[in-house]
Amino acid sequence: MMRKLFITKILAVALLVASFTTDSFALSRIRFASGRSSATVVGTLRAGASTKYVLRASEYQTMTVVVRSGNDDIRFDIVDKHGRFEYYYDGYARIETDANGDHWITLKNQGRGATRYSMTVTVR
What we know:
Elements: H1 2-21, E1 28-29, E2 38-45, E3 50-57, E4 62-69, E5 74-80, E6 83-88, E7 92-96, E8 101-109, E9 115-123
């Protein structure tokens, strides 16, 4: 009985530590204001960290993503239900969507220090 309690406590501590050392699993949903086709989000990423956004788009729309950061070292990718479009390193992507529904954008700071970023997404 005592050994089971000890193992349970160790697992609880391990889960707590893992939650502080990994990226957040929460997604931030990008919503476009009524009548608008673009939205901008801003944030900060520590070195090696990533963050995820999700937005809804229709098939055959053109999606443009522009990412700017203080260190110019943020990589991002765009994924839909069919898979990854590509990794983007230069802060700009323009794709034609091939699915209706959610599209996920993941930003990852490849730099050595924390950086502020802005991302503008346009869907037409």
